[in-house]
Amino acid sequence: MIRHIVMFNWKPGTDPAVVDQVSAGFAKMCEAIPHVQSMSWGPDQGLAEANFDYAMTADFASVEDWNSYQAHAEHVAFFQKFGAHAAEAARVQIEI
């Protein structure tokens, strides 16, 4: 099983409504992309300094399923719509 983890910081001045739209977009992707086994997302809880602002994790049965997710039209559209709001991002895929 593959876990995909994405963390990002918003650009200064990002409207909180955009953050809500990002959350709604993750929910839509989770439902629309059959290769996603599970997905969690949300803002940092502020428990430690220097954390990223927001994170998402998604689980896939295989590398092939993760590749299909990456190429899926819903994922591509999400990135095109919201990617510009991130000042920086970190991504990692781990085997679980």
From TrEMBL:
UniProt-listed InterPro entries: Dabb, Dimeric_a/b-barrel, HS1/DABB1-like
Pfam family, one: Dabb
Family matches, as Gene3D superfamilies: 3.30.70.100
PROSITE patterns hit by this protein: S_R_A_B_BARREL
Parts of the chain that traverse the membrane: none
Domain Stress-response A/B barrel as annotated: residue spans: 2-94
Source species, domain of life: Bacteria
Subunit structure: Homodimer.
Protein's name according to its UniProt entry: Stress responsive A/B Barrel Domain
Lineage: Bacteria, Pseudomonadati, Pseudomonadota, Alphaproteobacteria, Rhodobacterales
